[in-house]
Design a protein that fits this description.
The chain is of the alpha/beta class. The chain has a single domain, classed as UDP-N-acetylmuramoyl-L-alanine:D-glutamate ligase (3-Layer(aba) Sandwich). Helices cover 33% and strands 25% of the residues. It has ten helices and 16 strands. Strand 13 and strand 14 form a beta hairpin. Helix 1 packs across helix 8, helix 8 packs antiparallel against helix 9 and helix 9 crosses helix 10. The radius of gyration is 18 Å and the shape is globular.
């Protein structure tokens, strides 16, 4: 059954340079340049729409051709796009250099426009109505700390579940003041280390520390190593499937978040939800894009055959 999801967060332009051969640090490397709409919240929004949900996206955007590219991508994916447009500003961008094997070398985020998405914008009637009409709110840490706190407070007042995407080690700490209001946080190992301020050998120690900080549930990805997922009273692990070829890892975590949330909204337990998330991520990393245009409920179901069962840690 289709659910209504409100997404508040990043919707911008991703630029990726792919190195053709072995990476030669500190020197010019032959490669190719690629540009597409992206952003943690926007990637998840498009994936959720392709999985059959009614998704509304609210995000700041510049009045430029890059903003028009984002709008066109939203339409193509079936996302109800409701941006705050600043005609005299440029649309935010994320620029990354990718090695030949698909792994990230370094990235630069030009995200100053997101600072203009302050808490007062949540008082706009259209935004208030969007909160009232949705079944789930998803935000990402591209937004300012005070805005994320206001989103969490609004969700608590309206008894709406809130999920969040960490985005990066530098940005995930913006979620610290509102962790108690988040039902599920999606983050990778580096982001878990930044948020918990620790580097434990056993990933279960992250879960204990994040629970101490107030977080009720989350999924910690670790590349090709087993991910760790937890709710208030359960901790699970899941080995991502081994794939014959990886085109690009960009957007993998966002698609995993979409797959998990779609399954939870459909009434599945956490063990099945993380399998769905791993399947969605597997579909994405085999595509050269941050979201796969082929993603569908049918393809997701087929890909589940590659994903092992989750194991209980505690």
């Amino acid at each position: 059954m289709s659910k209504s999801i409100l997404v508040l967060g990043g919707a911008h332009i991703d630029r990726r340079g792919r190195i053709f051969g072995e990476t030669n640090a500190g020197a010019s490397n032959p490669g190719a340049w690629f540009e597409e709409p992206g952003g943690g919240g926007f990637n998840a929004a498009r994936n959720l729409a392709r999985l059959g949900h009614a998704v509304r996206m609210i995000s700041p955007r510049g009045g430029d051709v890059l903003g028009e590219m984002v709008a066109a991508s939203a339409r193509n994916a079936g996302v109800d796009d409701r941006p705050f447009v600043f005609l005299d500003r440029k649309t935010p961008s994320y620029t990354a250099i990718i090695e030949n094997d698909g792994n990230l070398v370094i990235a630069l985020a030009d995200m100053e426009l997101y600072k203009l998405f302050g808490p007062r914008r949540l008082m706009i009637r259209a935004v208030r109505d969007a909160f009232a009409e949705c079944d789930l709110v998803l935000c990402d840490a591209n937004l300012p700390t005070e805005t994320l706190a206001a989103i969490a407070a609004r969700c608590a007042d309206m008894a709406k579940p809130l999920a969040a995407i960490a985005i990066s080690p530098a940005k995930v700490v913006r979620l610290s003041p509102c962790l108690g209001g988040i039902s599920y946080l999606f983050l990778n190992q580096a982001e878990a280390e930044a948020l918990s301020r620790s580097r434990p050998e056993d990933p279960r120690e992250w879960v204990a520390q994040l629970r101490t900080l107030g977080l009720r549930g989350g999924v910690i990805t670790r590349g090709q190593r087993p991910l760790v997922a937890f709710s208030e009273n359960l901790t699970l692990t899941l080995q991502p499937p081994t794939l014959p070829e990886i085109a690009d890892v960009t957007g993998a975590g966002d698609s995993l978040a979409a797959g998990v949330l779609a399954a939870l909204l459909a009434g599945h337990d956490l063990a099945q939800a993380i399998r769905n998330g791993a399947a969605a991520a597997a579909i994405t990393v085999q595509s050269p894009y941050a979201t796969s245009e082929n993603l569908s409920p049918e393809l997701l179901q087929q890909t589940l055959a590659l994903v092992p069962e989750a194991e209980i840690l505690s």
